[in-house]
Design goal:
The two termini are 29 Å apart. The protein has 3 domains: 2-259 and 319-489, Amino acid/polyamine transporter I (Up-down Bundle); 260-316, no CATH class; 510-674, HUPs (Rossmann fold). Helix 5 (83-111) runs antiparallel to helix 18 (414-438). The relative contact order is 0.14. The protein is built from 26 helices and 9 strands. By secondary structure, the protein is of the alpha/beta class.
Length: 675
């Protein structure tokens, strides 16, 4: 069997690091504000705890990257144990990517200081434009991500220096009163709420298939600098945020002694008690909004209390939505004056906003890759694997654009989106590490396995807690898992009920049939190339080669168009059931007919080029391909491999295009197109 691999390993750590930072580092832009919202000046303690957890997870992923040098992540790690577990893990990851896209695009326009009424429509337009750019297969998106990541690093470095005074003030505010006043379980729940800081670490496991050898060294050099930067600056900026003099609800942040989540709750409850009885009972509604007419009819004291509540909510939204911009403005103002603070705040807002849009783009393409990988493995409908002329899975791309838009149209509050987000993030990481620990075939040392087991159990406790306490997150991720598993079940039933009668798989397996093929190429005989799959296509090709006394070649091209993000290992025929069955079917029929046969398995980023190259290289005078059943308009818009090849096929090579579901009776006249 001839196997070729056009998959370049060109990714060095110097390039992989910024890519990982662009995904993992963006969580800082909303986690810091949420931590302060939930825990006040105890947030520094929580950020330290999250930092320790991030270091532990980073260490675990250095082992995972080493064990899966051809591409890892939850789908690959879990699939070696159970296909169902891999589907659950991949769906959890998918829910995380959906919420990453949603929260990142909303936060981007918060950092741009977009007027409130424009945030949602501009976010929708941005996601559509990102989908349009990726529809064209724009290669510049990766370069843009690198430039923005380096810009964000530069701005963060400047901010870290300028915020030193507030950092020192923040150190003085560190308080443990929260832990004395809060029941242990409630304190634990608060910790689980900000575990979305782990979001993005899966990206490094998906990159290993493109990393230069040795992958283990490249992965470590990728992971540790990013971990140090993210954990270290999270602490610096988290402490600086707690030391700011910005007023929130009439009190400077450095002087707040109770988390704003509780302060707002108490203010709402106090206001409810002051509202006139004729307005109704608002006691069960913590997020009520009064109409303009109701506000006009409020007594003066109650109106003042209502306005103070609205102002407090606005102040909280300011630091939860754009905490890093506020830190930049206040730090710049302290050193450079009001104008300098405004300039630095604007620069930070633009750079971090672009970084968030880059994260949205990464999340959209990651969704495409997850859907593409699962559809290739027949876990989701096959149309999700359809490629357009740029090699992008266009059906999966549309789905990946529509779902986040649907999410933000329903809910675009950052605190709510964060709650939807966290279960998918922690669940996917838990499945990845847990599956790696349980897989005894992976080369993981005894002590490392014990430590990873403890980490997996801790993350499992976090995930279970989120599932029990964040019902909205459970409903979203659980509903998505239920939908995917239902689709998987229906696809399996339909496959069993299919009328097609494929050749039964040999006892020794398809792969053995392909490998055992004796390659004998007689230069004096005609040569036929089969570039289509299916029993009927194989029967036709074998019969044609037999009647012409020709050597039959069969090529299977596994596309690599989204492998830079796909959460699976690099394609190998040993793991590619579709390729094994397609080539194995032709091998069996050729053996029975006494036809010389040469199977070819190729991994490449361009199907048409590979088919043309191998057809010409081996001197084939006939090429057999599957006829497209799509409309003329569809083929023009999306591109068509048969049309591409027909337009460039050298003279003297006949192109035969036939439908895959057309039975071969041994004398059917083919549809032949002479070049």
């Amino acid at each position: 069997m001839l196997v070729t691999d056009s998959r370049p390993r060109t990714l060095k750590w110097i390039h992989a690091g910024p890519l990982l930072y662009g995904d993992w580092g963006t969580s800082r832009l909303y986690v810091l504000g949420l931590a302060f919202l939930y825990t006040g000046h105890a947030s520094v303690v929580y950020l330290a705890a999250i930092g320790i957890l991030m270091v532990a997870v980073s260490w675990a992923y250095t082992h995972i990257c080493r064990c899966f040098p051809d591409g890892g992540g939850v789908y690959t790690a879990a699939r070696q144990l159970s296909p169902t577990l891999s589907v659950v893990g991949a769906t959890l990851l998918l829910s995380g990517y959906i919420m990453t896209a949603a929260i990142s695009v909303i936060e981007a326009f918060h950092y741009f200081h977009t007027p409130h009424g424009w945030t949602l429509p501009l976010a929708v337009v941005a996601i559509i434009l990102i989908g349009g750019v990726n529809w064209l297969g724009a290669k510049s998106a990766g370069q843009f991500a690198l430039l923005v990541a380096f810009g964000a690093l530069a701005v963060s470095a400047v901010m870290a220096i300028l915020c030193v005074p507030y950092f020192l003030d923040g150190v003085k505010t560190i308080s443990f009163d929260y832990f004395r006043e809060t029941p242990p379980f409630d304190a634990w729940v608060s910790f689980t709420k900000i575990c979305l800081a782990l979001a993005g670490v899966e990206a490094v496991a998906n990159m290993t298939g493109l990393m230069k050898q040795p992958v283990e060294k490249q992965a470590k050099r990728t992971i540790w600098p990013v971990t140090v930067e993210v954990v270290g600056l999270n602490m610096v900026f988290g402490i600086a945020l707690a030391g700011l003099a910005v007023l929130v609800g009439g009190v400077a942040m450095s002087q707040i002694h109770q988390p704003d989540e509780l302060r707002l709750l108490e203010r709402r409850e106090a206001l409810v008690e002051m509202l006139p009885a004729e307005m109704g009972d608002f006691r069960s509604d913590r997020s009520f909004v009064l109409t303009d007419e109701q506000v006009r009819n409020l007594p003066r004291v109650t109106l003042n209390a209502y306005n103070e509540l609205i102002e407090h909510e606005h102040d909280v939204e300011s630091y939860t939505n754009a905490s890093m911009r506020i830190i930049a403005e206040e730090s710049g103002k302290n050193f450079l004056g009001p104008t300098g603070g405004k300039v630095l705040g604007t620069a930070a807002g633009v750079v971090f906003g672009l970084l968030l849009l880059s994260a949205t783009n990464t999340a959209v393409m990651a969704m495409v890759s997850v859907l593409f990988a699962m559809a290739q493995d027949r876990e989701l409908p096959r149309p999700l694997t359809k490629l357009n002329y740029s090699g992008v899975p266009w059906v999966a791309l549309i789905v990946s654009v529509v779902i986040p838009i649907g999410v933000i149209l329903i809910e675009h509050d950052v605190t709510v989106l964060a709650k939807l987000y966290v279960l998918g993030v922690c669940g996917a990481i838990t499945v990845t590490i847990g599956s790696s620990v349980l897989n005894r075939e992976l080369e993981i040392g005894k002590l490392a396995r014990i430590a990873m087991t403890a980490l997996a159990l801790f993350l499992l406790a976090v995930t279970v807690t989120i599932g029990l306490t964040q019902w909205i997150s459970t409903a979203f991720s659980g509903g998505l898992i239920a939908a995917v598993l239902t689709s998987r079940y229906l696809l399996a039933r339909r496959a069993k009920a299919a009328t097609e009668s494929p050749i039964p798989e040999p006892i020794t397996g398809w792969l053995s049939e392909v490998r055992d093929t004796k390659i004998q190429i007689d230069p004096g005989k005609p040569k036929v190339m089969l570039a289509a799959r299916g029993r009927y296509q194989s029967e036709f090709a074998v019969d044609l080669a037999r009647r012409r006394n020709a050597t039959l070649f069969a090529i299977f091209v596994r596309t690599l168009r989204v492998m830079d993000l796909q959460p699976g290992r690099a394609p190998r025929i040993e793991d590619d059931h579709d390729a094994q069955q397609a080539l194995g079917t032709t091998a069996i029929l050729a053996k029975q007919a006494g036809v010389p046969f040469v199977p070819i398995y190729v991994t490449s980023s361009d199907i048409a080029d590979e088919i043309l190259d191998h057809t010409v290289t081996y001197g084939c005078d006939t090429l057999i391909m599957g006829k497209s059943r799509r409309s003329v308009v569809s083929r023009k818009l999306e591109g068509d491999v048969v049309s591409q090849i027909a337009a460039t096929l050298p003279e003297g090579i006949a192109l035969i295009a036939r439908a895959a579901d057309t039975p071969h009776h041994g004398h059917t006249a083919p549809d032949v197109a002479e070049s």
